[in-house]
Specification:
This protein has 179 residues and is α+β, with helices and mostly antiparallel strands. β4 (104-110) and β5 (113-115) form a beta hairpin. The protein has helices spanning 3-19, 33-43, 54-64, 86-99, 117-125, 129-178, and strands at residues 22-27, 47-51, 77-82, 104-110, 113-115. It folds into 2 domains: 3-126, Alpha-Beta Plaits (2-Layer Sandwich), CATH 3.30.70.1730; 129-179.
């Protein structure tokens, strides 16, 4: 690879690091081209799965200000640059790695820090953003319903008390008139 090509490749990878919301570093040794194509399809349009030389990726990471990933760049390395929802991409990678033992997750990068394999797996185990938001909305709605019931309860108790007093008074008046 010519020096100009290397510089271009480093710049492209650095730009991907800068634009990505997260990145997952994997080892793809033993995967076929069709396996890699299947993985790329499963990741969707918001994730780019890039195979590159470790030295170029290290330089690009330094250029992008990404730290803590150097130990992960050993052996055949590929990086999933996630531009969308990190949970969805992590789930897809975890599922693919489960089905294809040759894919090994080495770690990742998100929110300005390196992630361990365990942290990437925990992200994959999270529910999607939409599910979490709907659960939050449901919890908020339930709390509002409880609050409304709490505010209505004293008024309904007063109304029942007034009705009971009125019945008692009516019963007392009818008892006096009968006597």
């Amino acid at each position: 690879m010519a020096k100009a090509d290397k510089a271009t490749a480093v710049a492209e990878i650095a730009e991907k690091f800068k634009e990505a919301t997260a990145a997952v570093v994997t080892e793809y040794r033993g995967l076929t081209v069709s396996n890699l194509a299947e993985l790329r399809r499963s990741l969707g349009n918001s994730t780019t799965y890039t195979v590159a030389k470790n030295t170029l990726v290290k330089r690009a990471a330094v250029e992008a200000g990404v730290e803590g990933l150097d130990d992960m760049f050993a052996g055949p390395t590929a990086i999933a640059f996630i531009n969308g929802e990190p949970v969805d991409a992590a789930k897809a990678i975890k599922k693919f790695a489960k089905d294809n033992k040759a894919l090994i997750v080495k770690g990742g990068y998100m929110d300005g820090r390196a992630l361990t394999v365990g942290e990437v797996e925990r992200i994959a185990d999270l529910e999607s953003r939409e599910v979490l938001l709907s659960k939050l909305a449901g919890a908020m709605k339930a709390k509002q319903s409880q609050a409304a019931a709490l505010f209505v309860a004293p008024a309904s108790q007063v109304a029942r008390l007034a009705a009971a007093l009125q019945e008692k008074k009516a019963a007392g008046d009818s008892a006096e008139s009968a006597a």
